[in-house]
Amino acid sequence: MSINLPSVYQNIKAQQIISYDYPITIEEGASLFSYLPKEDTRFFWQTPDQSITYYASGSCVDFPIDDSLPTRIATYRKQYLFHDIPTKVMGAYPFDLDDARESKEFGSLATGGFFIPRYLIEQTPEKTTVILTTTAGDSFEELTQTFEQMAKHVYRRATVDGKNKLMLKQEIGVRAWKETVQEAVDTIVKQHSPIKKIVLARQMQILMYEPLQAQAVLTRLQAQQPNTYLFFYERKDYSFLGATPERLLAATTEVVYTAAVAGSIARGKTLEEDVQFGQTLLDSAKNTHEHQIVVDRIIRELQPFVDEVKIYDRTLLKNRDIQHLYAVIEGQRLPQLSFLEMIKQLHPTPALGGEPKALAVKWIRDHEVINRGLYGAPIGWVSLVADEGEFAVGIRSAVCHKNQAILYAGCGIVADSIPEEERQETQIKFQPMLRGILGDDASRNHD
């Protein structure tokens, strides 16, 4: 591919971030994964309505997680001159922003991180665009050669079929987890206890005979789990992926959008039963109370950076295996905080941490046996052109390494929670990733 760069590229300073984009045609039925070289860092993102899909491979600039992250990204944004080429900064925070620790399950992903991708495919219903990004070299000719060499690596490759067989499926630490649930209940019901809710997570281990193929898992999730964000973040053979129903925050320069998701019940086997289950959820005092806690907190934490908040009626969000109480919340954005500062302000919502936030997160840190890593954490992207982006909450997810997947599920513990019932709720929440990894036979007994 011959690339003719406009003259504006001649004015770029050495080591400055620079991008070049061009349209591409994706063959029908082909995966975006097959069009880019597989580099150490990769990222995939698709919205619930499939209006936007991103697939990135390779890192041009890495951003470790610390308090200066919003400022460092803002500095790159000021230097980025190609406002018609919407490249992104992609990645994830760890769940515990104040105590991110190394984790054998998450390996190189344990503490999160962000990056500007070298290769990025942006797909909408109207068009598909390749965005190549690099740091400027010493000459205009060198830059042209760099983009030409990068473009040579963008082509359709043969894809693996993703077929695999299950070796082992087991819930991890069930007895200890149920004991922790009871500890949480005892904490909440204590006289004058300020803690109203604690969200506890647990794990399931899957071992396959062959290495897991993220592309195949995401393809199945796309077919099986409508109305969810699909995400995938990989660094050095550790990958975190899932199909989450929960948006944390989306923002343009003028408006912010979020949603309160809490409370859950299984889908019915028939339409009549499904409607009945949904109504039971809407009428449940426990679940509506849990949902209202989330709504109230989001509104409270949105107030510093929005002019006014609009709350839509509580309704049901239905996924294949589970349905939730759901309410859309939006507001007119004020300029005080950057988008990433808003993300840190909202995370974790009561649906993933508890209420009040600081006390619940500290209780989790002190009592929960597992290391959550990126589970329940903010994952998404922020634009390098403007201070806007979109993040989801990393639930209905798993971390994969070679032939192992560790699945995560959590539930909100309140005063009347019963440990075995909470275990059963998390079993339902394991189902999306079980189906994604094992296919539609996931519900069969493999133990």
Task: List descriptors.
alpha+beta; 9 helices
Note the overall shape. Answer: globular
Query: Uncertain spans, ≥5 residues at pLDDT below 50?
Result: none
Average pLDDT across residues?
A: 91
| C-alpha-based Rg, rounded | 22 Å
Name the helix and strand elements from N-terminus to C-terminus, one letter apiece: EEEHEEEHEHEHEEEEHHEEEHEHEEEEH
Strand count? 20
Distance between the termini: 52 Å
Relative strand content:
25-35%
Class from secondary-structure proportions: alpha+beta
Given the structure, what is the number of helices? 9
Domain Chorismate-utilising enzyme C-terminal: 176-429
Protein name: isochorismate synthase
Catalytic activity: chorismate = isochorismate
Keywords: Isomerase
Task: Give structural notes.
- Belongs to the isochorismate synthase family.
- Residues 176-429 form the Chorismate-utilising enzyme C-terminal domain.
- InterPro entries: ADC_synthase, Chorismate_C, IsoChor_synthase.
- The chain has 447 residues and is an alpha+beta fold.
- Helices cover 27% and strands 33% of the residues.
- It is built from nine helices and 20 strands.
- The chain has a 20-stranded antiparallel sheet that branches.
- Strand 17 (378-383) and strand 18 (389-393) form a beta hairpin.
- The mean pLDDT is 91.
